[in-house]
Design brief:
alpha+beta, 21% strand, flat, 4-stranded antiparallel beta sheet, 5 helices
Length: 155
């Protein structure tokens, strides 16, 4: 009986230490102002807990290029698995870069042989529709797809 009690006590101490080591982020720390001033946020402690969990979960999100990213949308302008799909996707991407030099495009490969060309980094589907309408004039089969995108301002 004592052995079970000691094992339970050791287990509780270890799990408490592990959960404490993850760090706890307060909303006030995220919204610190530059250049002075004071910000008082009055909210339930559970909100800070949810924000911390969200930050920890999003640290694991990676783009296809391997950089840290976030969930969002890109516009897909090409998708094929035919034999010449690699060459055709390169041609479509070069054509897109010539027609829209201000927009960034990403070549993407997905097993077992699908080649894609995706465009832009949009946080919401609504945000991508302005560019989608412009792109559809040149690439009529373009459509928005969920993707892991780069953070705003990061290329």
């Amino acid at each position: 009986m004592m052995r079970k009690l000691y094992l339970s006590l050791i287990f509780l101490i270890l799990t408490a230490g592990i959960s404490y080591s993850q760090g706890f982020i307060k909303t006030g720390d995220l919204l610190k102002r530059q250049g002075g001033g004071e910000l008082n946020i009055i909210q339930d402690q559970a909100i800070d807990s949810l924000i911390s969990r969200n930050i920890v979960a999003n640290r694991k999100v990676r783009t296809t290029e391997g950089t840290q990213g976030m969930l969002g949308y890109r516009i897909q302008i090409y998708y094929s698995s035919v034999r010449s799909a690699y060459e055709e996707s390169s041609r479509v991407r070069a054509d897109f870069i010539n027609k829209f030099p201000e927009m960034i495009s990403y070549p993407h490969y997905q097993e077992p042989g699908w080649f894609m060309v995706r465009v832009g980094d949009y946080r919401t589907k609504t945000e991508c529709y302005k560019d989608l309408l412009r792109i559809r004039k040149e690439f009529p089969n373009a459509y928005p797809v969920p993707a892991v995108i780069n953070f705003p301002g990061q290329k």
